[in-house]
Amino acid sequence: MRMALIIASILYASTVEAHDAHSGWSYDLYCCNGDDRGGDCQQIPSSSVRIVPGGYQLTLAPGDHRLVTRRHIFKLPQSTTRRSQDSEYHLCLFPDENTPRCFYAPDMSF
After folding, report:
1. Whole-structure pTM value
2. Could you read off the pLDDT of 87-97 as tens digits, one per residue?
3. CB of 88 closer than 8 Å to CB of 105
4. What are the extents of the domains in the chain?
């Protein structure tokens, strides 16, 4: 009985918390859709990010993000960009590869 409670507690905790970036900080729960497997959020290459007036342009190819299967160009406003805690760019795609849910950029990107 005690083991069942421990397992239930672990399973509950994993469904409530956001998953972590490889460098150890946690993505916001909304951004990763509560997916603790890290399937929809990940670091992307800085070479795929270009600073443009008012925000960012992301040009992604297969291999730049685990969900990307074809070339995408996303234009994301600065006003919705979240602060990256490791000086890298991160992108959360949900519910599919066509929909950027959250974008994290390092401080002082402009």
Report:
1. 0.78
2. 999 999 999 99
3. no
4. 2-105
- Is residue 26 within 8 A of residue 68, CB to CB? The reply is no
- The identity of residue 40, as a single letter, is D
Angle at 51 between CA 45 and CA 55, to 5 degrees: 110
> What's the N-to-C CA distance of the chain in angstroms?
56
Please work out, in degrees rounded to the nearest 5, the angle formed at the alpha carbon of residue 109 by the alpha carbons of 96 and 28: 40
Read off the tokens for 69: 């299967």
H, E, C per residue of 43-107: EECHHHEEEECCEEEEEECCCCCCCCCCCEEEEEEHHHCEECCCCCEEEEECCCCCCEEEEEECC
Token pair for 32: 């990763």
Residue 101, class by beta-carbon neighbours within 10 Å (0-12 exposed, 13-18 middle, 19+ buried)? Answer: middle
